[in-house]
Each structure stands twice: as C-alpha cells, then as structure tokens.
Amino acid sequence: VADAGHDSSRNITSGSPTRTGSVTSPRASHVSHHHASHSHPQPGSASKSIAPNAPLKRLDPTRRCALPTTLPSSGNATSPRGRTHVTPLSNPNDTTWTRSRLAKERKDWWDTRVTGQREIWGAVQLCVEYLQADNVAEAQAILDASGCTCPHGEIWRGVFGETGEWYKVPEWLVIEPAGLVEDPPPDPEEDDAGKTDDEDSVEEGLSREK
C-alpha cells in the first residue's frame, strides 16, 4: 500500500500518470479535420481514444506480493509532498495474516473508497474478481463498458476513468500475498459454549429417542 504499486488510498492525485497517448497539434499546423477531431475531443466524448491502453493480462498464479504490514510507510516519492499515503488496516501491528483476515481487509478497502466515482470503483472491483477467477475476457468487457483504460494491462498499477481520473488499487488486493497462514480449525468447546439452553435440550431429546 506504500510503494508505487500500493498507494491505493490516494486514488486521484496531481501526481497521477499523464495520458501519454494523447495527440495534440499546433494551431498553425494544417492537419486534416479527422486528426483535429481526435486531438481535441469535445466534452462528453469518449476519452479512451486518447488514453494509453493495453489489454488486461492474466494473473500469474505463482506470483506473490508482500503483505501490507511488511511495506514501509514512506519510500519513493509518489505524491507531491514526497510521501506515499498509507491506508490504515484493521490492526497494522498484527503480523499474522490468515486467509479470512485477507478477505476482510480486502472487503474493508473496497467499502472505504471516498474519491472518484462509485460506479468506476464498482467496475474495477468486478474486474479484479473476474481476473482472480481467471476470466480475463469478462474482466476486459467490464473495463471497456465502463469507459476505463489500463495503460499497463495490470489493473493494480492503475486505470484511467473515462473522464481522466486515476484509479489505483494496492497489489495485495489483486495478487495473493506471500506469508499467508491457514485459519485455525474451529474450537469445539467454543461451539458448545455458544449454544443456547434450548439447543442443548433439543440435542438431549434426540439422544434419548435414539
């Protein structure tokens, strides 16, 4: 969440990549009307034609990223102030990461997006879920339908919204982190402690009938 692949909370910043694929022409140049129309899109027109774009790539099932808590809170300057912005996790001091905790942290991250357009965040989330299910074609279709473009083909490196906003997700939201541990098996005593008196009575009655 802290390096160039993890500055997720600062989704729309002045330090976001510029649209290097845009085409501009001098006023004095004698270009055709066709080229001029693409160089100066009118308000409301699709910006995908001038945004850098690459097809989404299939996730490498063997790839692993770093756990969020192992990432430094500051590093290479990615924001105008020279510091990366880190989203607080539920318990950043807990170094134990189970699969259930990862699922919860991911859900909390998506639920706390406050910048940009909610519809675009929803589309990006669906793209991530389809990529994780190894359905690249469906992820690409959703990205295209939302008017977004992905400059690198790797969605965690960021996408452009149709109106030019920059949407960034941390790598651990997409790629499985290294160092995950399996969830401990349920404790039978805790399950018994959670039962009500009525449940115990029903079980005793069934035992007697048997």
Automatic annotation (TrEMBL):
Pfam families: UBD. It comes from the Eukaryota. Residues 92-183 form the DC-UbP/UBTD2 N-terminal domain. Residues 184-203 have a biased composition (Acidic residues). Residues 1-96, 178-210 are annotated as: Disordered. Residues 10-24, 70-96 have a biased composition (Polar residues). PANTHER family: UBIQUITIN DOMAIN CONTAINING 1 PROTEIN-RELATED (PTHR13609). This is DC-UbP/UBTD2 N-terminal domain-containing protein. It comes from Clohesyomyces aquaticus.
